[in-house]
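Data follows
____________
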Amino acid sequence: MDFYATCVLCLSLSLLFFVFRKKCTTPRLPPATKGWPVLGKTLQFMADGRSGCPEKFVNDRAARCSPDVFRTNLYGKDMAMFCGTSGNKLLFSGENKYVTPWWLESMRKIIHFPETLGNINSKDVKKKRSFLLEFLKPEALQHYVSVMDSMTGDHLATDWYPHTEVKVFPLSKRYTFALACCLFMNIKYLENVLKIGLRTRLLGSLPGSLRCQ
């Protein structure tokens, strides 16, 4: 009888130890839920974008959960979204200290070579960012003004003025993409821009691999 009582006591103490240890070591996570398994909140995020109000996804959760940070799941990945000036300050001042760069799996497979896919470090990110800064120098920006002015006029004359009602979000995306193709890749013909757009539309999709024999 004493043996069984001792076993029950040891088992109870062990369970209590693991329960309290788990509570003490559980990290404090931002509020909100992650949604459906695998899909998470991706469908709602995409629906808000297609409706022309992409900011609705963030604004609704910031008002309901926390104005500073909330957690969610997009494209199969758990993530936290920072809101407001305090979030921007943390991200830009704490790079490589509190936060690290991250890319969608579908984008990483295209941007990086297979042999370096699992070994992306901060030096690679800084190198790519230095290339981007070359396009943002004051001398380059002066050249961009005339191009942007001309393309804006053409865009308004073609996609806005002939219509009494327009959807701003898809037209803004089309204009921004065409402008980036012209400035960064010197691609000016609309047919070529549309071809590139078709190939880049699925960069933000759920990652997956199809193998053909």
